[in-house]
Specification:
This protein is of the alpha/beta class. The protein contains nine helices and eight strands. A hairpin with a 2-residue loop joins strand 7 (234-237) and strand 8 (240-242). The longest helix is centred in the middle third of the chain and has 23 residues, at 106-128.
Length: 270
């Protein structure tokens, strides 16, 4: 049985995953931004007979992201799966550029910087428990980065910002998987399902096309199923392997992104 940290577990896909996992006998470490909602979720999970613990952090703050990783590693040195599920969508149509607590463009901060920083913090724990897994929840919606305007200061558009962040997450996933080759840590990125019935999708004014249940199978397969024990550096549409945007595989693009991430987060010795 695995011990998993799921970010963004209090609603949407993360919440559904949490219940599926505890029913399967796994231990769920449920992250949420709101303490009351996180506590309520843990109570519900335990009421089913499951093993669960809550961890609160605002992923728009890098200090809180790193603190989250430190607390999880100290409390659960047996952690062997990280599911980076939390994210910020395109926002209300026509809304302007938003900033994180650290002054970064919000979608880049939560969808890229947070999972990268959290994964870095937890890598020693994951390696100690290898074979282990990192599952990054991405999207088929991807747009190449503009390295001259990485955080979208000019001509901002929320949908484009979201797609750029998911491009960056995919490119980082492939680079990290290559760097961790031979360590026993499998790293993959997944598009769970298209326009699931979540607050993120509804906020964007889009009619849901799928349920969160539809998006669960692929994430479970990578997190605790055979698929995640075999694949690494993969991009999945549900349970089916597919290809991300072509430039995400470009080593030059990956290296440039790594330089920017190290500039923001601090050098990372792999």
């Amino acid at each position: 049985m695995a011990t998993l940290l799921i970010t963004g577990a209090t609603s949407g896909l993360g919440r559904y995953l949490a219940f599926e996992l505890v029913r399967g006998g796994h231990t769920v470490l449920a992250h949420g931004r709101d303490e009351k909602r996180t506590d309520a979720l843990v109570e519900e999970l335990r009421a089913t007979g499951g093993r669960a613990e809550g961890f609160v952090a605002d992923l728009a703050s890098l200090e809180q992201v790193r603190d989250l990783g430190t607390r999880v590693a100290a409390a659960h040195p047996e952690l062997d799966v990280l599911v980076n599920n939390a994210g910020v969508g395109s926002g209300v149509p026509g809304s302007g550029r938003e900033l994180s607590a650290d002054g970064h463009e919000l979608r880049f901060a939560v969808n890229v910087l947070a999972p990268v920083a959290l994964t870095r913090t937890l890598l020693p724990t994951l390696q100690a428990n290898s074979p282990s897994r990192v599952v990054n929840c991405g999207s088929l919606g991807q747009s190449p980065l503009d390295f001259d305007d990485l955080e979208f200061d000019n001509n901002y558009n929320g949908t484009e910002a979201y797609c750029r962040s998911k491009f960056a997450l995919a490119a980082h996933t492939f680079a990290l998987a290559r760097e961790l080759s031979g360590t026993g840590i499998h790293v993959n990125v997944i598009h769970p399902a298209t326009y699931m019935d979540t607050a993120m999708v509804r906020e964007a004014g889009v009619g849901p096309m799928n349920t969160v249940e539809d998006g669960t199978a692929g994430v479970l397969a990578l997190a605790v199923g055979e698929l995640g024990g075999e694949a690494t550096a993969g991009f999945f549409d549900g349970e089916q392997p597919t290809l991300a945007q072509a430039e995400t595989y470009d080593r030059e693009v990956q290296d440039r992104l790594d330089i920017e991430l190290d500039r923001i987060l601090g050098p990372f010795k792999r």
